[in-house]
Amino acid sequence: MKRSLFIGDVHGCYNEFAEIIELFGFVKGTDTLYQTGDIINKGPSVLKCIQLIEDLGIQCVLGNHEARLLKTLNTPKLEWTEKERERIKKIKELDFVSSVISKWPLWIDTPEALLVHAGLEPFKEKLEDMSPDVLVSIRMWNSKPWYDLVHWHKPVVFGHWAKKGLLIRPLFKGLDSGCVYGKELTAWCPEEDRFYTVKAKKTYAEINKTAYSDLS
Ligand SMILES: [Mn+2]
Q: What fold characterizes domain 4-117+154-199?
């Protein structure tokens, strides 16, 4: 049987990323792998993750971290802030990484589900009308979680909200269970309606202590 697997936010956690694909029993040429974005920053092995994505043909959407990097790279170097300079310095093989992530779309409409990094913009019917910034960074909208304000005709798979953790509803699968923060990496297979989980090998980063609505 052809299956698909939607994998949550990775942030450079290569070992857990490879392990969850192994646990699923991925068959190349038959199965399809998707990922919610935010592959880069925070964690230990970003380059290996990007290589794995290319090797296995994993279909990723843009996360806010990739969107921010691409935005910085489109700005003249002289205008980069100190923080931007620091972030970019940490990325190995920047040209390769940026060439890969610049191919990623804001959403992927698969037969089983709609995949997006953060969520959908409430009160908009078409994805094309939604703000790219919202698609990669929304959590709350008018003091409510965005998914309480959105209806969609198929399941929506997203990441981005590690503090909230795993969200399982018939129409919404929130897969960011905070792997880089020492919790776990989660993936969902719609054909089996089954979740796969891999425990983080360690705590790679401290969770941002600011409000839910931040962009981290
Ligand atoms: Mn994110």
A: Purple Acid Phosphatase; chain A, domain 2 (3.60.21)
